[in-house]
Specification:
- The chain is of the alpha+beta class.
- About 20% of the residues lie in helices and about 35% in strands.
- The strands form three sheets. Strands 8-9-10-11-12-13 form a six-stranded antiparallel β-sheet, with helices on one face. Strands 7-6-5-4-14 form a five-stranded antiparallel β-sheet, with no helix packed on it. A three-stranded antiparallel β-sheet has the order 1-2-3, with no helix packed on it.
- Strand 4 and strand 5 form a beta hairpin.
- The radius of gyration is 42 Å and the shape is globular.
- It starts with a helix and ends with a strand.
């Protein structure tokens, strides 16, 4: 009897231990038993934690600039059309009364329409209706110049000028530029040179600069020759307190600084031609 009880007890103990061992192996059913899948899930979770924003826009400029808001005037396009006298029976340079300049951006959006009317009370010589781009105020942007031809016995050249205003994205007319005789740009010194002949024995030279956006004559000289000796007399004036004041500079000093006999005074405005006949 006792032997049977011992055998029963041993069998019961073995069954109990086996059941407990099986329970320990089957209990963590909620955990992923695939190491590869677990590693992938963890990588995705880490990537989500590190990704604090949307994917970068590959179309955006790398330097952070916005091309739509750029003030680069090189993106501008120009359509230049002459307006002629409607009563004229022919179409040549003498019948042009106005010049229409349409300015558009790179998206072909019209920014401005400039209409310049020529002074028909004078008939200029060497008039070609030329319109060109040139950086007149040395700010790195192209400005518009209209060649008005040559006037008088001395053949003085004049230009109408429109400066580019990057803030307003418009061209603005500068009436005082039209008063400069035979203008030539001196980019090295950021000034505009002007020269003219009063008569066979009298000449004038002037320098203009941009002061706070305003064009001003800053200095000028007169060169007068004695008819008998052909000796040159030179006088100089400079801008002081908004007035031209004569200086005490002698002939040698004026000659050295101004060099009136050099070719730099004999040039013309040069730039990209938009229209010419």
């Amino acid at each position: 009897m006792n032997q049977k009880i011992m055998i029963f007890f041993c069998v019961f103990t073995l069954l109990f231990l086996t059941a407990c061992n099986q329970s320990d192996h089957e209990s963590p059913k909620h955990r992923n038993s695939n190491p590869a899948a677990e590693s992938q899930d963890g990588g995705e979770e880490e990537a989500k934690n590190q990704n604090t924003g949307a994917l970068p826009d590959e179309s955006a400029p790398k330097d952070g600039t916005q091309t739509d808001d750029m003030d680069d005037d090189s993106e501008l396009e120009y359509n230049v059309q002459p307006v002629r006298d409607e009563n004229a029976d022919w179409k040549d340079i003498t019948t042009i009364t106005q010049m229409q300049i349409t300015v558009t951006d790179k998206k072909n959006t019209e920014l401005q329409n400039i209409s310049y009317s020529y002074d028909l009370s004078y008939e200029p010589a060497a008039f070609t209706g030329k319109v060109l781009l040139e950086d007149v105020n040395f700010d790195g942007s192209d400005d518009i110049l209209l060649d008005l031809g040559r006037y008088g016995n001395q053949g003085v050249k004049y230009y109408a000028c429109y400066l580019w205003n990057p803030a307003a994205k418009q061209y603005e007319e500068i009436p005082e530029f039209q008063e400069i005789r035979n203008p030539v740009l001196n980019s090295a010194d950021q000034e505009i040179l002007s020269s003219w002949r009063n008569s066979a024995d009298s000449y004038g030279y002037a320098k203009y600069r941009w002061e706070n956006g305003t064009l001003q004559m800053t200095a000028r000289i007169s060169v007068d020759y004695d008819i008998e000796t052909m000796e040159a007399q030179m006088t100089e004036e400079r801008l002081e307190n908004k007035q031209m004041v004569r200086t005490d500079a002698d002939k040698e000093t004026i000659q050295k600084e101004w060099q009136p006999d050099t070719a730099m005074w004999a040039g013309d405005m040069a730039g990209k031609i938009l229209y010419e006949e």
